Amino acid sequence: MSSSRNETPVHSDTPSDEADPSVDDSPKEECGVFGVWAPGEDVAKLTYYGLYALQHRGQEAAGIAVSDGRRMVVFKDLGLVSQVFDEQTLSSLRGHLAVGHCRYSTTGSTTWENAQPVFRTTATGSGLALGHNGNLVNTAELREEVGKLQDKGRDSGVQATTDSDLVAELLAATAADTGVEEAAMRLLPRVRGAFSFVFADENTLYAARDPHGVRPLVLGRLERGWVVASETAALDIVGASMVREVEPGELLAIDADGMRSSRFAAPEPKGCVFEYVYLARPDTSISGRSVHAARVEIGRRLAQEAPVEADLVIPVPESGTPAAIGYAQGSGIPYGQGLVKNAYVGRTFIQPSQTIRQLGIRLKLNPLRDVIRGKRLVVVDDSIVRGNTQRALVRMLREAGALEVHVRIASPPVRWPCFYGIDFASRAELVASGLDTEGVRRSIGADTLAYVSVDNMVAASEQPRSRLCCACFDGEYPIPLPEEARLGKHLLEAPALDAAGAASGDPGPLRENARDTPAPLSVGYGAAEALNRP
Length: 534
Hints:
Layout: E1 31-37, H1 43-53, E2 61-67, E3 72-78, H2 81-84, H3 87-92, E4 97-103, E5 118-121, E6 127-136, H4 139-151, H5 163-178, H6 180-187, E7 193-200, E8 205-209, E9 218-222, E10 225-229, H7 232-237, E11 241-245, E12 250-255, E13 258-263, E14 271-272, H8 274-279, E15 285-286, E16 289-290, H9 291-305, E17 312-315, H10 321-331, E18 339-341, H11 354-357, E19 365-367, H12 369-372, E20 376-381, H13 388-399, E21 404-409, H14 431-434, H15 437-444, E22 448-451, H16 454-461, E23 468-469, H17 471-474
Parallel strand pairs: 14-23, 17-20, 20-21, 21-22
Antiparallel strand pairs: 1-4, 1-10, 2-3, 2-4, 5-6, 6-7, 7-8, 8-12, 9-10, 9-11, 12-13, 15-16, 18-19
EC number: 2.4.2.14
Family: In the C-terminal section; belongs to the purine/pyrimidine phosphoribosyltransferase family.
GO molecular function: 4 iron, 4 sulfur cluster binding; amidophosphoribosyltransferase activity; magnesium ion binding
């Protein structure tokens, strides 16, 4: 028999910082997943430290599910990993396997119900906990499947509104008859989009990655068990040795009988290139390539593509630092630290007053005036999304005495929303979608502006372009998208689909390839809040 323990949603009435103009408009990460099967180990603490290493991938909520072989206990809440868990909580989570998750929402709002791992009980009384990194594109279809189950009398009573929740519901409904492993093998071929799932019942840990391998997922070995995680950095922090990546289209099962591998789909690799640019930790490796080394190489190539006469190269910390080092190496211009980042300003439930809010970017970055004064600066950042951060930054550097500000961006212009797990603004809010480079330069007030090319970004990853998804830069979506009415972050919170499966209003044409009809691609996962963002 399984049980789920959930804390009171103590922060649920607090406004999200999505509407807070003091928060920057950098691309938001997606989620981090972690799983461990290790009898005799303190799996809750291993998971806590694993999630701590993955905190950059999601700061809205965190949770851990632990099983001792008889029952499963879930503890989750809104907040950072260190806010959700304390020593007492972790010591109460005892067992031999665990599933952990840190969340940034890409489907469904920031509510306690939507925190993960998702928990379900099957008809036979066993438990199922699931964590998901990525985003699905056939969420509307999966909701219709769940609706049919409800018509047959199955009602989980859960109020969550995420694509992950639908997958857990469908798994639990099928597992009662077939077992979880077989249920997954039947369901996963019908799930379309980006997903790295880590899930478990009372005895077995599972991991699955979509056929395109859009989001990373790796397998590690402990002395007395196994670990799966979104990034290799999480393996390092718990002392696990890297075994290999979970393959696209692969389902792993780990229990007392060992590790089993099954294929539910043929692999068609399309890893997210933005993981190299921004999302992953610099101390992570993806497909054997050091993320830090890739970012330094992007900077070197950017210096060759877009040289400028200047006195100092400075990064926008921390994500711009490796590329700034590379730009300095490639250009011969000295590298320096011109901006200091307040490491303790993140997503907060304490809203700043209007006076403090007007400080904007200064809450996170402050200039070193003696370094900047009288200098011609090259400022290296990882990306421009809406442009407001860079606009405020250029103004701040000029006020601090910079003679010239030349902005260099370590990714191409972001012109298209992501439907596979990154929360950009809508296409209408992406500054590079409506302006050319000169227009963006004027908008942010820089003396010059240049981006790295797609070709040089891809070359720095050391992956063939055919194995990478560059959709946010080139509009070529590797996983076909449904009509616009069946997309969006708040799809499951909108009015229910009618019997024909269409939402109210004109659903628009079905797009097999975004390049053919670019204009209708207006929604993105941040579209609903985009106008309220900085």
